[in-house]
Amino acid sequence: MIPSQPEDRDVLAGEYVLGLLDPAAMAEVEQALSSDADLARRIAVWEERLLPASAALGKADVDPAQWARIEQALATRRQTLDPTTAPSLTRVRHGVLRAAWRSPTLWRATTGLVTAAAILLAILPNRVGAPGESPTRYYAILQSRDAAGQESGPGWLIQVSQNGTVQSLPLADVRPGSGRALQLWTLWDQARGPVSLGVLPPGGAIRLPPERLEAIGDGQLFEITLEPEAGSPIGRPTGRILFIGRAKGAATQDL
Amino acid sequence: MEPFDHASALEGCARGDPASLRRLYDQEAGFLLAVALRIVRRRDVAADVLHDAIMDIWERAGTFDRSRGAGRAWITSIVRHRALKQIRIVGRETELDAAAATEVADDAPDPFAILATSQDGTRLHHCLAQLGAERRAVILLAYVDGLSQSEIAERLGTPLGTVKAWVRRSLIALKDCLS
């Protein structure tokens, strides 16, 4: 409940700015903001009051390549917004399927089936770029990451075809150990967190049919984590990241 | 030197002018990255947070209202929200990686000490100084480091209920002192 006493409203606004509210209270404040101008003003005042403490941190060195990534994202966004030039990104055709894909419960329930399908599909390795396949729209070379968080070179290849099919191929020899499995995730939206693309079968090769995917964008994060054999029980990564990398659009010219 | 006009740059973004975003980025990317890095503690993750925050700024610039507050505070709040969401939802992976976390923490400046010498920060420094060490730490660990109440309780070895009470009393005292 949003309080009515000015002092309580200031404390709530301060706690919101400090990031100390639990998710439910935070959602309540954010919902109230659209109609509660007084609360919005109290929040803005806290943001200004505390700003010097952030400013005291100085500046960090920004990777010179970072702006190019932003520019590319801006361009992609403009394209996506304009239906005449929108690329034929894969959309889920059925609302039910989309909801199912987003539901961790259903996803957990179907993981076994998907894994079984993935194992079947894994019989077809090394088909990356094979003739007659849908052309590649995005590649993601995932870097191996050791227990100390250090990257040690390319370890996994993710390929997203024009028709939305995802292929995953290991470039490094990985044995998750008994009772453990590798799980592939992608991050569409920071706020929503990583979404599982499934537990990888032994050997790691997997093909996902296009209806399992939303639009994949340039720069989108993919990662593979170490999880219990049946996959993460909570629908979010629980183990450490073994491979991580971003999608990069394939060049359009012919070889 | 003319102070940078954040509000005008944001209004440019609201009109869809990429040059305005570029000016804002050139001016503030290093600062925003420092804010994100302090919270998420990892350079690659902080770079992602900065990227997403810049996209948020571009898309939400139309909702910025210069009569309600300063542009710099507005963009800072966006990057802090992104960074906090990152560590609350995705998890603070660095906690598993003590060596890397210490590395960042060791060369991390103490914002309270720097506030004393910064032109804009003297008033906040004065008011934080009046809170006493523990209650000041609660505010700065939350605001600067992005710690949750239970993380703060653990860090300070204080019961959660006490931390909650400190937050409330500190906010009231700070507001009275700063107004």
Automatic annotation (TrEMBL), chain A:
Pfam family, one: RskA_C
InterPro entries: RskA_C
Domain Anti-sigma K factor RskA C-terminal: 113-240
Protein name: Anti-sigma-K factor RskA
Automatic annotation (TrEMBL), chain B:
Domain RNA polymerase sigma factor 70 region 4 type: 123-173
SUPFAM superfamilies: Sigma2 domain of RNA polymerase sigma factors, Sigma3 and sigma4 domains of RNA polymerase sigma factors
Cited InterPro entries: RNA_pol_sigma-70-like (IPR039425), RNA_pol_sigma-70_dom (IPR014284), RNA_pol_sigma70_r2 (IPR007627), RNA_pol_sigma70_r4_t2 (IPR013249), RNA_pol_sigma_r2 (IPR013325), RNA_pol_sigma_r3/r4-like (IPR013324), WH-like_DNA-bd_sf (IPR036388)
Keywords: Sigma factor, Transcription, Transcription regulation
Domain RNA polymerase sigma-70 region: 24-88
PANTHER family to which the protein is assigned, alphabetical: RNA POLYMERASE ECF-TYPE SIGMA FACTO, RNA POLYMERASE SIGMA FACTOR SIGZ
Family named by the database record: Belongs to the sigma-70 factor family. ECF subfamily.
Name the UniProt record assigns to this protein: RNA polymerase sigma-70 factor (ECF subfamily)
